[in-house]
Amino acid sequence: MTQIAQLSEAEIEERFHVTGRTAIQFTLAGYAREHESFSLHFNLGQDMFLTTLLAVQPDKERLVFDCSGSAETNRRFLNSQHSQFVGHPGGIPVQFSCGPASEITYEGSTAFAVALPQKLVRLQRRENFRVETPRLKPLVFFGRLPSGELLKLPSHDISVSGIGLNAESLPEGLVSEQVLEKCHFQLPGDPNELFVKATVRRIQERETRSGSRYWQIGLEFNQLSTGDENRIQRYIDRIERERRELS
């Protein structure tokens, strides 16, 4: 039984539903940008295949995703009237339901498209709630490698337990489980910098649809004070509130 399945509908509705056209578009566009994989269940749960989200097209209010590698599975899917996407982007359980799909051409290849869902469930514990940070004016993280080399990278998400960074190339000498002793960054709207020690937990090479490659680096904060946790949580709450107001 999944973690979501163990909750009542009322609990899910209150705590984890993402609703509103803008908020849903924003969330799914982030997953598509990272080419997140989802299992796609249809035909009353009797059939499924793995797919990758490719794009959100706001003007057409639809989600674009990869076809199955099986022509017969694709045929059955196009004949179905209901589907459910289930995934774990960033380790966070996410699921949403959609109606019938159509076959389209996307960037020269065959793909599927469905109308955007009315809601989605994004399940995560409050203390580890993670939000994407702004892309146009990114939160910049500074650290120093054991070699003494300065680390200066933009973030892509943050929670009270850690921060995710993007890098065009992998910093030389950076390895998993390495502890970065002297790190700091400034939260927008906070006049004082936040000083932390962090452990490298994830290093992953990714590829954009255009073929360019980059690296994602996940850091875990070590022994944050309650005051610093509260500063990060206030920042997260503000971002979520602003995004809800746009929906």
Describe this entry's structure for a reader:
The chain has 247 residues and is of the alpha+beta class. The protein folds into 2 domains: 9-124, Pnp Oxidase, Chain A, CATH 2.30.110; 128-246, Thrombin, subunit H, CATH 2.40.10.220. Helices cover 21% and strands 42% of the residues. It contains 4 helices and 16 strands. The protein has helices at residues 9-16, 21-33, 71-79, 226-246, and strands at residues 17-19, 37-42, 47-57, 62-66, 83-87, 94-98, 102-106, 109-115, 119-122, 131-132, 140-144, 150-159, 162-167, 179-185, 194-207, 213-221. The strands form 2 sheets. Strands 1-9-6-5-2-3-4-8-7 form a 9-stranded antiparallel beta sheet. Strands 11-12-13-16-15-14 form a 6-stranded antiparallel beta barrel. A hairpin with a 5-residue loop joins β11 (140-144) and β12. The longest helix is centred in the C-terminal third of the chain and has 21 residues, at 226-246. It is elongated, with a radius of gyration of 20 Å. Mean pLDDT is 85; it is low at 9-14.
Give a nutshell description of this structure:
By secondary structure, the chain is α+β, with helices and mostly antiparallel strands. Helix content is 21%, strand content 42%. The strands form 2 sheets. A 9-stranded antiparallel β-sheet has the order 1-9-6-5-2-3-4-8-7. Strands 11-12-13-16-15-14 form a 6-stranded antiparallel β-barrel.
Q: Can you give the helix content as a percent range?
A: 10-25%
Number of continuous helical runs: 4
Stretches with pLDDT under 50, minimum 5 residues? 9-14
* Rg, Å, rounded: 20 Å
Separation of termini? 32 Å
Task: Tell me, rounded to a whole number, the average pLDDT.
Answer: 85
Shape: elongated
Strands side by side in the biggest sheet: 1-9-6-5-2-3-4-8-7
Number of strands: 16
Number of domains: 2
The fraction of residues in strands falls at 35-45%
CATH class type of the largest domain: Mainly Beta
